[in-house]
Design brief:
67% of the residues lie in helices and 0% in strands. It contains six helices and no strands. The chain has helices at 2-23, 26-30, 39-58, 63-79, 81-92, 100-120. α1 (2-23) crosses α6, α3 packs antiparallel against α4 and α4 (63-79) packs antiparallel against α6 (100-120). The radius of gyration is 17 Å and the shape is globular. The mean pLDDT is 87.
């Protein structure tokens, strides 16, 4: 039940974020690290990636597609981490913004978000997997990716 709730929470959150990236790109362009070329297009396509990942995570017909979406969303969360860091630098550098009360938990949450996408998509059972006598872990899914 917790895995299903996590999967649906992530799907809805990524869908909402993706729609915002596409419809209201300015706040996301503003936190893009300066070396990233064509920031408007990067924000647009990351929004599309979030929307497609959310659909893949939410759908119930293919466990393989759901796992691929979970891997994609985890990689996405890893790749946007520099933008989150840039956002923190911008805000804490005197531009006003959200402050430490937002940014510190956000930085701590990023690895959890990465793990949650993998766990919700049944890519990993860690840390909840039962250890077998040979030291390996049992997987709850038998369908290979």
């Amino acid at each position: 039940m917790a895995r299903t709730l996590t999967r649906w929470f992530l799907a809805l959150a990524y869908l909402a974020a993706g729609i915002l990236h596409v419809l209201i790109p300015a706040p996301f362009v503003g936190i893009m690290p300066h070396p990233v070329p064509f920031p408007e297009w990067v924000v647009f396509w990351t929004g599309i990636a979030e929307i497609l990942g959310a659909i893949g995570l939410a759908q119930g017909r293919s466990a393989r597609l759901r796992r691929a979406a979970g891997i994609g969303l985890a990689l996405y969360a890893l790749c946007v981490w520099p933008a989150n860091i840039q956002h923190m630098i911008n805000d804490l550098g005197g531009n006003g913004g959200l402050g430490l009360g937002y940014h510190v938990p956000r930085m701590i949450a990023q690895p959890v978000i990465i793990w949650a996408a993998l766990w919700a998509a049944q890519v990993t059972d860690w840390p909840f997997a039962q250890a077998s006598s040979s030291g390996s872990t049992k997987s709850s899914s038998s369908e290979p990716l």
